[in-house]
Amino acid sequence: MKLIDSHCHLDSEQFDADRDAVIERALAAGVEHMVAIGSGDGPPDLEAGIRLADRYEPLYATIGVHPHDASKANDDTYRRLAALAAHPKVVAIGETGLDYYRVSGDLEWQRERFRTHIRAARRCGKPLVIHTRASAEDTLRLMREEGAQEVGGVMHCFTETWDVARAAMDLGFHISFSGIVTFKNAKDLKEVAKRVPLERMLVETDSPYLAPVPHRGKPNQPAFVRHVAEEIGRLRGIALDEVASATTGNFFRLFRHAHPA
């Protein structure tokens, strides 16, 4: 059985004390690859994921500026997106998107940033990793307006409705489920997980956040992606191996610049 954690923030300071051990535990749990997301909630460090991917062979990276970051990243930041995307271990642009839940006020800067990331993805021919919270209508609108369907990508840590999932899939996007799908109160999301075609699904941890049951409330780590896959298997009445095989195959088809071990 081989799993892939398609989204984790391994550059987080929460991993500074034991990052090597965290990655070793993931490999021991059957997590063959992890994607180090190159965007955090602080000032943009576009190369954070790249540095980790260069250091650890099982890691891939993305580059982007998180929508939570309200600082006005300058034009040079955006110019660097296309240049850094040429790195052989960069598999996607992001995470990017819209968040109207944690950020308020005039959010035109956030929408323009999202547009810029979509354009960068189209320029470099790599898919998008999209974050959307309390902003699904605008997220989908900008995806359509900017031609995000030309590169596709993934709606990460999905928590929206079936209608949003279907609209995203119509644009060629995959749906990624995190530990939230294991939460008892996530009944609507569990129904979405039953309906999304297995061939359009990924799994992730979003670690160090959102640890799945039975680790809820503790720091998350890539090894725990197994619990996400187990829950999806339980919901759909299929074996863990089938979920692992499907989501791993989906990963390599979507992230074309990644290469199986």
Question: What is the compact description of this entry?
Answer:
The protein has 261 residues and is an alpha/beta fold. It contains nine helices and eight strands. The chain has one domain: Metal-dependent hydrolases (TIM Barrel).
Topology:
Layout: E1 3-8, H1 19-28, E2 31-36, H2 48-55, E3 59-63, H3 75-84, E4 90-99, H4 108-124, E5 128-133, H5 136-145, E6 153-155, H6 162-170, E7 173-177, H7 187-195, E8 201-203, H8 225-236, H9 240-254
Parallel strand pairs: 1-2, 2-3, 3-4, 4-5, 5-6, 6-7, 7-8
Count of helices? 9
How many beta-strand elements? 8
CATH-level-4 superfamily name: Metal-dependent hydrolases
- The total tally of domains equals 1
Assess the beta-strand content as a share of residues.
15-25%
Helicity range: 25-40%
Distance between the termini: 13 Å
Rg (C-alpha, Å): 17 Å
- The CATH architecture term is Alpha-Beta Barrel
Query: How would a crystallographer describe the biggest sheet?
Result: 8 strands, parallel
| Strands ordered across the widest β-sheet | 1-2-3-4-5-6-7-8
Question: What does this entry look like structurally?
Answer:
By secondary structure, the chain is α/β, with parallel strands linked by helices. The chain has a single domain, classed as Metal-dependent hydrolases (TIM Barrel). It has nine helices and eight strands. It has helices at residues 19-28, 48-55, 75-84, 108-124, 136-145, 162-170, 187-195, 225-236, 240-254, and strands spanning 3-8, 31-36, 59-63, 90-99, 128-133, 153-155, 173-177, 201-203. Strands 1-2-3-4-5-6-7-8 form an eight-stranded parallel beta sheet. Strand 4 (90-99), helix 4 and strand 5 (128-133) form a beta-alpha-beta unit. Helix 3 (75-84) packs parallel to helix 4 and helix 4 (108-124) packs across helix 5. The longest helix has 17 residues, at 108-124. The radius of gyration is 17 Å and the shape is globular. The model has no long low-confidence stretch (mean pLDDT 93).
